[in-house]
């Protein structure tokens, strides 16, 4: 597949692989040797290149710096025991990238350019895919507007870039979370469903305030009433209540996670009762109080399956059963890992072999 695109490759003269400490991989700080870059100009994608990972230089008037036409994706590559490298459901990310592009008035990136740019880059830097348990190569494709122009209008030029880097767990321990009932991450009619940079900028202050109160993360609630659960902001959220898997149905203000879809598919495949619907904070609160909430967890590419240890509700902190007892989420994590690392059959055809 990768040789159907005309990608110019300039290799680094000095790999940083040898000097990289693979036993210490803080998320998002270590980058592989190369990156992919392409430009959108005159209505088409040009200059498809893989170059050594390096700085980029821009005009200070570049529109993204002022008006935020920027969005990204996150996916991972895994190394199997036989040395084969795979991507997990990359066409799902390609599809979502274009949903983000459409909402932000940016140009479509053909799905094959998205997937093949990543495949070519990962193929070149495949020695950067870590092999330790729960480790993988995180892939960050992103697009931003580059017109040097201060008028508020869609840019005519863009850059598409892909970075990769070896990672371990995003959340180092089970999470202590609370419902956010004042601030809003995304509203109906807004762009919470897009992986827009601005969604994350707006979440920083509320997250910082929650951290000052001793919480690790927020559970965002709806913008109108702050009464319904939305998502975690770096992951979707799921609950097991009375043995049923319950997760908010997706809407304008919720990102349609690839991991969410994968976990729901597994649950249904196993014959578990699954409900995708609006779920109120009060309902989760009641389930916490009555002990019918047996599991709560985040699901996302970086987060994988991140167990929630405790939830703040109406000023009280409720502790969930120990994560070792979290039957469903542990089984789902194991099943996802078996597919991703090739320990078991890829029953749903989710792996894309490079
Ligand atoms: N919600 C938000 C806001 C996210 O940033 C992410 C991470 O990508 C998710 C949910 C989970 O989505 P996915 O499983 O596709 O990574
Ligand atoms: C991902 O899981 O890929 C994300 O984008 C989460 C991120 C904000 C770290």
What does this structure look like?
This protein is of the alpha+beta class and 354 residues long. It folds into two domains: 8-168, 2-Layer Sandwich (D-amino Acid Aminotransferase, Chain A, domain 1); 175-340, D-amino Acid Aminotransferase, subunit A, domain 2 (D-amino Acid Aminotransferase, Chain A, domain 2). It is built from seven helices and 17 strands. The chain has helices spanning 63-67, 90-103, 111-124, 197-212, 258-269, 281-290, 327-340, and strands at 8-9, 34-41, 44-52, 70-72, 75-79, 85-88, 136-145, 158-167, 175-180, 217-220, 236-241, 244-247, 274-276, 293-300, 304-313, 316-319, 351-353. Helix 2 packs across helix 3 and helix 5 packs across helix 7. The radius of gyration is 21 Å and the shape is globular. The chain starts with 7 loop residues before the first strand and ends with a strand. The structure holds pyridoxal-5'-phosphate and 2-OXO-4-methylpentanoic acid (COI). The site of pyridoxal-5'-phosphate (PLP) has 13 residues, from helix 5.
């Amino acid at each position: 597949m990768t040789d159907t695109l005309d990608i110019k490759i300039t290799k680094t003269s000095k790999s940083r692989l040898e000097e990289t400490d693979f036993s210490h991989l803080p998320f998002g700080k270590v980058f592989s040797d190369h990156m992919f870059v392409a430009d959108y100009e005159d209505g088409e994608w040009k200059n498809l290149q893989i170059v050594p990972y390096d700085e980029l230089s821009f005009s200070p008037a570049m529109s993204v710096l002022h008006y935020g036409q920027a969005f990204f994706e996150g996916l991972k590559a895994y190394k199997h025991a036989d040395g084969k490298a795979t991507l997990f459901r990359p066409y799902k990310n390609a599809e979502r990238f274009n949903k983000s592009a459409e909402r932000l008035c940016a140009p479509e990136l053909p799905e094959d350019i998205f997937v093949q740019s990543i495949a070519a880059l990962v193929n070149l830097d495949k020695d950067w895919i870590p092999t330790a348990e729960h480790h993988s190569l995180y892939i960050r494709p992103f697009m931003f507007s580059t017109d040097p122009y201060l008028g508020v209008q869609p840019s005519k030029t863009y850059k598409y870039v892909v970075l990769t880097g070896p990672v371990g767990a995003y959340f180092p321990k089970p999470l202590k979370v609370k419902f956010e009932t004042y601030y809003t991450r995304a509203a109906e009619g807004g762009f919470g469903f897009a992986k827009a940079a601005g969604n994350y900028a707006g979440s920083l202050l509320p997250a910082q305030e929650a951290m000052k109160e001793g919480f690790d993360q927020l559970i965002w609630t709806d913008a109108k009433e702050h009464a319904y659960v939305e998502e975690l902001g770096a992951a979707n959220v799921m609950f097991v209540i009375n043995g049923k898997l319950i997760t908010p149905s997706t809407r304008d203000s919720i990102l349609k996670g690839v991991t969410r879809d994968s976990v729901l598919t597994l649950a249904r495949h196993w014959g578990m009762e699954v409900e995708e619907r609006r779920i109120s904070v009060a309902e989760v609160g009641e389930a916490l109080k009555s002990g019918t909430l047996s599991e709560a967890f985040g699901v996302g590419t970086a987060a994988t399956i991140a167990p929630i240890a405790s939830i703040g509700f109406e000023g009280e902190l409720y502790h969930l059963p120990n994560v070792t007892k979290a039957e469903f989420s542990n089984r789902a994590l194991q099943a996802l890992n078996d597919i991703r690392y090739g320990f078991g059959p890829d029953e749903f055809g989710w792996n894309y072999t490079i």
